[in-house]
Every structure is written in structure tokens, then in C-alpha cells.
Design goal:
This protein is an all-alpha fold. The chain is built from four helices and no strands. The protein starts with a helix and ends in a 6-residue tail after the last helix.
Length: 75
């Protein structure tokens, strides 16, 4: 028993403290997700604004663009 106490100085491993770091991680995760959603929405709205010629350049039809552009932001 004394050998084990010598190795870890008698301290037991503790769980990481909850508080600022944990809440900061959660907040960062939420903000990243919202930023991702907003980026998708902007891209999809921009897709709806493209002309038929521009859509041909990227290789999609007007129907495909409309279908993609009208998808919900979370999808």
C-alpha cells in the first residue's frame, strides 16, 4: 500500500473541473454549429440567384438548384 501512495503521492485522480472551460467548450460548439448553418443558408440563397448559364457552368440544372436552395438550413 505504501508503494502506491509513493507513486501518486496519496492523491486520487480527479475529474476535470466543470465551470468556465466546460461552458466555454459548449458555447464554442453551439456557435460553430450556428455559423455552419448560416453559411449553408447563405450558399443556398446564392445558388438560387445564379443564372441558367452560371448553373450550367457548375453542372447543375435549375431544378437541382431550386431543390438545394430551398432545403432548410439545418439539413
Amino acid at each position: 500500500m505504501d508503494a502506491i501512495k509513493t507513486i501518486d503521492n496519496g492523491r486520487r485522480p480527479s475529474a476535470p473541473p466543470l465551470g468556465r472551460r466546460a461552458s466555454g467548450f459548449v458555447l464554442r460548439s453551439v456557435l460553430e454549429r450556428v455559423e455552419n448553418w448560416l453559411g449553408k443558408r447563405r450558399s443556398r440563397l446564392a445558388l438560387l440567384q445564379l443564372t441558367d448559364e452560371q448553373l450550367r457552368d457548375v453542372g447543375i440544372s435549375r431544378d437541382e438548384a431550386r431543390r438545394e436552395g430551398l432545403r432548410p438550413f439545418w439539413d
